[in-house]
Write a structure and sequence with these properties.
Layout (H helix, E strand, L loop, with lengths): L1 H24 L8 H15 L6 E2 L5 E2 L1 H18 L2 E5 L9 H19 L7 E5 L13 E4 L3 H10 L15 E4 L3 H23 L6 E4 L2 E4 H8 L1
Helix pairs in contact: 1-2, 1-3, 2-3
Length: 229
């Protein structure tokens, strides 16, 4: 009876994950969920095969299927919570002691940056400085803010590529990234390593590298242009 109960619980967790995935899939990029989908399939396979008692987790550790499902659920929920967030680096930080004053300063700065400098109308909320506050710090802490929706977020990220060409010197050192989970940061690091390899390969052949990272994927711009032309 205990074994049957455990099997039912595991399958219920998978159903919950699939339902949550369907909800998130309607709001997020499909590429963001591919790795999680593979993990779900691994769990389902282990449940349907009595000879498999566990599945392989990150770092080589063996995890029970229920643990994998729970980890995947946590990851999906974390991505959903961050989907409208943006992190701004090297943007000036207020030195006032009053927390509300600093928050108002950060919200106003982010709004000005998005609307005036990037040309994207965005409502900014929940300004948070990441990291411990230090007096006379050499660099301002990263600023995380929430914007209207995912479309606004991607419009800001697309426009942010032009900051280095800004006429304002203080904006040339500012860069913007999406708010990523730990898993997404690992995936991003891996993608950047692959991009460096592509660039090195193109340089050795005397060619222009046409590979870029776009919304969590390594994309060949040349192939995309040929397909659309």
């Amino acid at each position: 009876m205990l074994k049957v109960e455990a099997d039912v619980t595991r399958k219920a967790d998978i159903q919950e994950l699939v339902k949550l995935e369907m909800v998130v899939d309607g709001k997020a990029e499909k590429a963001d969920l591919e790795q999680l989908q593979e993990r779900v399939l691994t769990v389902e396979t282990s449940l349907n095969n009595p000879s498999i008692t566990n599945v392989q987790g990150g770092g080589g550790a063996a995890l029970e299927p229920k643990a994998v499902v729970n980890n995947s659920l946590d990851e999906l929920k974390d991505r959903e919570a961050r989907k409208d967030n943006i992190v701004i680096f090297n943007i000036a930080e207020c030195s006032e002691e009053e927390i509300d004053v600093r928050k108002d300063f950060d919200a106003a700065q982010a709004t000005e940056l998005f609307r005036s400098d990037l040309g994207v109308a965005a409502d900014v909320s929940n300004p948070v400085r990441l990291g411990k506050r230090q007096v006379n710090a050499a660099y301002p802490r990263p600023l995380r803010v929430t914007v209207n929706n995912e479309r606004t977020k991607w419009n800001i990220l697309k426009a942010a590529k032009n900051l280095r060409e800004s006429g304002k010197e203080e904006l040339k050192v500012v860069y913007i990234k999406r708010d990523m989970t730990r898993m997404e940061r690992m995936e991003d690091e891996n993608l950047r390593k692959q991009l460096m390899e592509k660039r090195k390969e193109a340089e050795e052949k005397g060619l222009r590298c046409t590979w870029i990272i776009r919304r969590g994927r390594l994309v060949n711009q040349q192939r995309t242009e040929q397909t659309t032309s």
